[in-house]
Design a protein that fits this description.
single chain; alpha+beta; Growth Hormone, Chain: A; T-fold; 3 domains; eight-stranded antiparallel β-sheet; three-stranded antiparallel β-sheet; 17 strands; 59% helix
Length: 725
């Protein structure tokens, strides 16, 4: 044991400060990782796996760390873990491939797996019974403050899509924690509850009927599985609304932690709950219920409201569940090692299972709904045990709770059936790529052929995006941009060919389509900035300046500050690449769709809906065969400003002639012989409008057609555009 109340408080505060620092750094890393995965096209399964690696290490080490602290002391564990967090991230500078981050996550999980349970055990062992809830509430408030600030800082640090600032920040926060642990934690501090020992209790665990430890661990596992899925996939879901603006996504992602931080700081320890198990269960159920409804959100304010509900559920449940765990035995390290191990198991399963569900349903909504129901179900045994009167055997409550849990989980499976695959030889698949969800609808002779083809198509999509995306500094276009104003870079044959076609498109459209607009667009949310900033970069935008050497595949941008952005053509090229792989793999017909752009192939007609640019409805449907269908508009990425008393949209597609947002139309849909051409023409036709655009189609692209929605919301189509139904 350690000295007086004052010294105990100093140790507790040092533990909280060190925990805050480590959580701040790891929170920034955890937020950036899914965005980095999207930027480097690593796919939803990899993203979930990498996130889970951190918690897999915690799952293994948390119980062992707790038992070590009970027997040998806490200081060496805490200091060693923090120092490992200082040096391990630096391996990123030795091994720069994105897959190496999976291993870094696992190694950092060693730090977290040691620090978290031992810190909680120290707080539990030094606190009086009357102060446990207050101490745990304050600790949780600080951790949630770190989880709130971490994503915000992560968004700021990752603003230029570089992982290096995030690594440096993590090393610094870990160094701060190591200093606090070394200076203020006594060397011989054992994590044994001193007040229990003073009362003559030396058993490792209290009687199980007193606290419902088993049921509590079950509920904690369900809650953390949901949180793991939420942290992994909420940024991707929000990116559909904020369109890859890391700072904005980080702010909305942080709402649950902000609410929890404020609520825990204000209310923890102020209320003495008699039925702690019931209160803990109700709080966890509230969080899970909000997560369930988040799966169907389409408005930003709803995400904020439900995120606040998730946070309030933590305010209610976290302090009392920690208090319950602490009251379960003298050996606080062992108790909190089990609790943290269970929580880490949830964090491992949540992202992994979430990735599988997202791929199976080709959507992220079911991920939130199924984990919301699972979280509710796993809390029911804890609630049932708390509600069953003490005159009945404890087993009765557990049996009732398990039946209720099975019923809720069964309802979830029944309410979310997968689309019937194989009917009429049609199979569907999905996944995350290009900042959105992609969908494959395949006609195949059997499931084995479809599964193999879909797997190959997914690999192709990931590989092509890695190569074409300017945000991936390891890809072809990223390397060219990094060497602007210098010697240039050698790129892949496929990227060289695509860039050549993009420059040819620039020539045919007299610069309306110009991939060197990247000088402006590589900056996130560039369209929301002052238009004078874009004007200063006008001399950097000219597709004719790009130098390509077909012998060496070297591409040079002669001016410092120039950049290539293939965003107006790359998605179509990726879709076409996936179609080519599917044809070679035995798929006779199908649709490849990504973010509303399609290619429909095979000897059958496919029906494609065309969205209205201002209303939640379709303009109509068209029927196509062996065609690419791509859209563009001012409704994807934009900000609204008032000009002369009227609202106007500044959006992501620039008219280079004016350096302002294109304004001749508000939406366009193009049908062409392949998705790549349809994608490039959609951007061009939006800028040109029907007058100039119609002439370009007739002169250079007679096989393509377009439909424009004009600023007054009238519709105009080229002569050969398919009939609307």
């Amino acid at each position: 044991m350690t000295g007086n109340v004052g010294s105990r408080r100093l140790i507790i505060f040092s533990i909280m400060g060190g925990g805050f620092a480590t959580t701040l750094g790891l929170g920034a890393l955890s937020f950036v990782l899914p965005l980095f995965g999207l930027d480097t096209s690593l796919g939803d399964i990899w993203i979930g796996s990498a996130f889970s690696a951190y918690f897999l290490a915690r799952l293994i080490l948390a119980p062992l760390a707790g038992m070590w602290a009970d027997r040998f002391g806490a200081k060496h564990v805490l200091v060693g873990a923090a120092l490992s967090g200082v040096f391990l991230p630096l391996t990123h500078f030795l091994f720069t491939g994105p897959q190496w981050l999976f291993f870094i996550q696992f190694l950092l999980g060693i730090s977290g797996g040691l620090i978290r349970p031992v810190s909680m055990a120290v707080i539990g062992s030094l606190g009086e019974k009357s102060s446990k809830a207050r101490n745990f509430g304050l600790h949780a408030a600080l951790m949630n403050a770190a989880f709130f600030l971490g994503p915000v800082l992560g968004g700021v640090l990752y603003f230029n899509r570089s992982f290096v600032p995030v690594v440096i920040f993590l090393c610094l926060t870990m160094a701060v924690a190591a200093g606090l642990f070394y200076a203020l934690v006594p060397g011989g501090l054992l994590t044994l509850a001193h007040h229990e020992i003073e009362q003559g209790r030396h058993d490792s665990f209290a009687r199980p009927e007193k606290t419902g430890l088993f049921e509590l661990l079950l509920a904690i596992g369900g809650r953390t599985a949901g949180i793991g899925a939420l942290l992994t996939f909420l940024p991707i879901l929000l990116a559909r609304h904020f369109y890859e603006n890391p700072l904005a996504v980080g702010l909305v992602t942080s709402v649950p932690s902000l609410v929890a931080c404020v609520g825990l700081a204000l209310f923890s320890g102020r209320m003495a709950w008699r039925n702690k198990g019931l209160v803990a269960g109700i709080g966890m159920i509230l969080s899970s219920l909000c997560m369930f409804f988040m799966g169907n959100c389409s408005e930003v304010w709803l995400f904020v409201l439900l995120g606040a509900g998730v946070g309030f559920g933590r305010v209610v449940s976290v302090p009392v569940s920690m208090e319950l765990a602490s009251l379960s035995g003298v050996a606080q390290g062992r108790v909190f090692g089990l609790a943290n191990g269970t929580a880490s198991a949830g964090f491992v399963l949540g992202p992994l299972v979430g990735g599988v569900v997202a791929a199976a349903y080709a959507d992220l909504g079911p991920v939130f709904q199924l984990f919301g129901l699972a979280g509710i179900a796993l809390c029911l045994p804890l609630v049932a045990v708390a509600l069953i009167p003490r005159v009945y055997p404890r087993g009765m409550g557990l049996v009732v709770g398990i039946f209720l849990m099975a019923g809720v989980l069964g309802f979830g499976i029944w309410a979310h059936p997968r689309a019937e695959n194989g009917k009429n030889n049609i199979y569907t698949y999905g996944g995350a790529a290009m900042g959105t969800m992609f969908h494959l609808t395949l006609e195949a002779p059997n499931k084995d052929v479809a599964d193999t083809a879909a797997r190959k198509a997914r690999k192709t999509i990931a590989a092509l995006q890695r190569d074409f995306d300017f945000r991936n500094r390891y890809g072809s276009i990223g390397r060219v941009n990094l060497h602007a104003g210098g010697r240039g870079a050698r790129i892949s044959e496929r990227a060289f060919a695509l860039l050549g076609r993009a420059l040819d498109m620039g020539g045919k459209t007299d610069g309306l389509f110009d991939v060197t607009v990247g000088a402006v667009t590589v900056t996130p949310l560039y369209f929301a900035r002052s238009e004078r900033v874009a004007e200063t970069k006008r001399n950097l935008i000219d597709y004719r300046l790009v130098r390509m050497d077909p012998k060496t595949l070297n591409v040079t941008l002669p001016k410092l500050g120039m950049a290539i952005d293939l965003g107006g053509i790359a998605k179509g090229a990726v879709i076409d690449g996936a179609v080519a792989v599917l044809r070679k793999s035995g798929i006779t017909a199908g649709i490849v769709e990504a973010g509303g752009d399609f290619y429909c192939f095979g000897d059958r007609l496919w029906t494609v809906g065309i969205r209205h640019p201002r209303e939640e409805r379709l303009l109509g449907n068209i029927r196509v065969r062996e065609k690419g269908v791509c859209g563009s508009g001012d409704y994807y990425q934009y900000v609204v400003e008032v000009q002369n008393g009227h609202e106007a949209r500044r959006h992501h597609i620039l008219d280079i002639a004016t350096m302002h947002s294109a304004n001749r139309s508000v939406g366009v849909t193009v049908v062409a012989e392949n998705a790549e051409r349809a994608d490039a023409l959609a951007t061009t036709m939006l800028i040109a409008g029907p007058g100039q655009g119609g002439g370009l189609l007739k002169k250079f692209f007679p096989g393509a057609s377009a439909l424009w929605v004009l600023p007054d919301l009238s519709v105009q189509a080229s002569e050969n555009f398919p009939a609307l139904e």
